[in-house]
Amino acid sequence: MAGAQLDALMLEDGDAVVCAVSLGAKVVEYSNVGYDSGVILVNPCSHPQALNKEYTFYPLFRYLAPALELASYALGWVSVLPILTDDMGDKTSIALIVDQIFWGAHIDVEFTANENVGVVISTSDEIMLNDVLYDLYEGAHFAEINTLHGRIGSARDAKLYETAIMELLNQITT
């Protein structure tokens, strides 16, 4: 559904470049955007086979996610209230966190990268296996930064992401 919505938005502005972070890459990969327009994927979390099995929370992601998804539904409206604090200190909901865990660990998407796709890789990514990402996104442009996974909102790391994204924009839009 979200991929189709993105396609409709991109029909209005075909020259736009879409940037997706972590699990947000799935929306782009479920759309047709990556084939026609510019796309930048930041620490894409779209393919379960790229999850690092050594990551502390991997068992939670892989084995408990279906049960957590069911528990989230059982909680009803409570699950969508912003009552938890995420790793950046912002409030978030149980449903959002559980959906991210489930979709990241269990739902794969077919996507063929091309010269219109740029991928930002964090060399210290604790969640994803970068060598697998390089294989999955063969044909794309890559930029590496030395940071943890998806810290795009971090005051310390934001400039690294900005520099990498600008580098990729220059490569995919020329």
Question: Any key phrases for this structure?
Answer:
two-stranded antiparallel sheet; globular; 7 helices; alpha/beta; single chain; four-stranded parallel beta sheet; 174 residues; 42% helix
Going by helix content, strand content and strand pairing, the class is alpha/beta
Number of helices: 7
- Catalogue the unreliable spans: none
**Per the principal axes of the C-alpha atoms, what is the gross shape?**
globular
Series of secondary-structure elements, N-terminal to C-terminal:
HEHHEHEEHEHEH
Averaging pLDDT over every residue, what do you get?
A: 84
- Distance, first to last CA: 31 Å
The biggest beta sheet is recorded as: 4 strands, parallel
